[in-house]
Design a protein that fits this description.
The chain is mainly alpha-helical. The chain has a two-stranded antiparallel sheet with strand order 1-2. Helix 2 packs antiparallel against helix 3, helix 9 crosses helix 12 and helix 12 packs antiparallel against helix 13. The longest helix is centred in the middle third of the chain and has 39 residues. The chain is globular, with a radius of gyration of 24 Å. The two termini are 47 Å apart.
Length: 479
């Protein structure tokens, strides 16, 4: 393996690992804010218990997510210095704002939320967790703006003297048409993940506490809330994903063609649920297809024309030139790795549909306060957060692998983005060290999560009255 291969593996491992925590943080912060708001408005004890319980799990996830995210920033300078040099003027702006605005908004108000129990008035205190959630949304927006620019570069000019892309229109970058469909899709997927997390944890605790009437009722309520969020957000993910697919076809038609392994242009084009072909993936032997579905996904018309890989490759060759295996990092030049794009696209959709369907089924069997016998539905509930997290991960693999061989579409290939001064040995040391560190963090994360999930929601305690606090009253860590 050369340096580019190793650097890509490191970036992939760290990015996918970090993204395990991101959607849970976004979704769970919003759900905890809803729980606490409901408690403030209704005074019902169960909502305070759910706030405290899922708030603790949110804090564990947030802390590990911050640690794993820090390495993301350093990777650009470590292994991708040529990329950083080329796009720094454009890419740096949204990332800087994310750090200076969004992250400090999250961290400041998270501190107030943690230490503000019994010190701040209830309405002020609940506003702090909403500010934290708003910070996670801002953070997502700016990071996705940077990523969307890699998918569809806008608002820049190329300076041939410096060999850099220079920012000319900040707002064009912020409101890139790829960003406008990617942001709602990712945020809705995060809400789906948060809902599934609540559903899975509460399902396990309901099964564990099925002989305790009070706790069983509490966890059943959380199950239904989590299932409702998972289903509603899942429908939103499907709708926003449809819009995203159409924009993707406009700006990255090769990615859509690779998602279907469509080698030749078709009008209309069918969507294959399953395909069995030759080892090189270029000849189809058997396929289960839905007629005209790909045309609709790509163009919005059941009779739409979808460009094939061979035709697009010829078009890109004429536009950009070609040097497979050296200038362009891809075995087939401008074509991404077909098995990866084909199956990641289907795993993303399939696991998402499974999770939404499972949530709908759980809502159905628990309607009207019903507590159906059997352990199948709590066990199904436990599977759903795993399915949603995997669906999100496969979605990012498709997004990034489908863009290959480009680091920035049409401007810079991945082979040209890697640091020229890093040796293969140094790259191996880096990837092994970071992977080992992340494995240790995984043990800590899941150990803490499992410990506090097994303990369940804390017993209800009447919160301290902030009016009884004085300037000498010490801050208390509420968790």
């Amino acid at each position: 393996m050369d340096v580019t291969d190793i650097a890509r593996w490191q970036f992939g491992i760290i990015t996918v690992y970090h993204f395990l925590f991101v959607p849970i943080t976004i979704g769970l912060s919003g759900i905890v804010a809803v729980f606490q708001t409901t408690w403030v408005r209704t005074g019902k004890q169960e909502y305070l218990r759910l706030t405290k319980f899922f708030g603790k799990l949110f804090l564990i996830n947030f802390a590990i997510g911050v640690v794993t995210g820090i390495v993301q920033e350093f990777q650009f300078g470590m292994n991708w210095s040529d990329y950083s040099r080329f796009v720094g003027d454009v890419f740096g702006a949204p990332l800087a704002i994310e750090g200076l605005l969004a992250f400090f908004l999250e961290s400041t108000f998270l501190g107030l939320w943690i230490f503000g129990w019994g010190k701040l008035p209830k309405k002020v205190h609940v506003a702090t967790i909403w500010a934290v959630h708003l910070g996670t949304l801002f953070s997502s927006f700016f990071i996705l703006a940077a990523n969307s620019w890699m998918q569809h570069p806008v608002g820049y000019r190329y300076n041939p003297t410096t060999g850099r892309a220079e920012l000319t229109d900040f707002w064009a970058v912020m409101f890139n048409k790829v960003q406008l469909v990617t942001f709602p899709h990712v945020v809705l997927a995060a809400y789906m993940t948060g809902g599934a997390f609540v559903l899975g944890v509460a399902g396990y605790l309901h099964l564990k506490n099925r002989n305790s009437a009070d706790d069983s009722a509490l966890y059943l309520k959380a199950v239904r809330i989590g299932a409702a969020i998972t289903l509603a957000a899942g429908l939103g993910v499907a709708i926003s994903g449809d819009f995203q697919g159409k924009v993707m076809t406009q700006v990255q038609p090769m990615k859509m063609a690779a998602a279907e392994a469509l080698y030749n242009t078709e009008k209309p084009a069918s969507f294959s649920i399953f395909t069995w072909g030759t080892p090189d993936g270029k000849t189809e032997k058997f396929a289960i297809k839905v007629p005209k579905l790909l045309s609709f996904l790509a163009t919005g018309s059941v009779n739409g024309r979808v460009e094939g890989i061979n035709q697009l490759r010829a078009e890109y060759t004429a536009k950009y030139g070609q040097d497979p295996g050296t200038k362009y990092y891809s075995p087939d030049g401008y074509v991404p790795i077909i098995p990866v794009t084909y199956w990641s696209f289907r795993f993303m959709i399939g696991l998402g549909v499974f999770a939404a369907t499972g949530a709908a089924l759980i809502l159905l069997v628990t309607r009207n306060g019903g507590r159906p016998n059997g352990r199948w539905w709590p066990r199904l509930a436990v599977l759903l957060p795993i399915a949603v997290v995997l669906a999100s991960s496969w979605g990012w693999l498709f997004t990034e692998m489908g863009r290959q061989p480009w680091a920035v579409f049409g401007l810079m290939t991945t082979a040209h983005a890697v640091s020229p001064s890093v040796s293969a040995t140094e790259a191996w040391i880096s990837v092994i060290s970071l992977t080992t560190l992340y494995a240790v963090l995984a043990v800590i994360e899941f150990g803490l999560m499992w410990r506090y999930i097994k303990a369940g929601a804390p017993a209800y305690e009447e919160p301290a009255d902030p009016h009884d606090a004085t300037d000498d009253t010490p801050l208390a860590f509420a968790y």
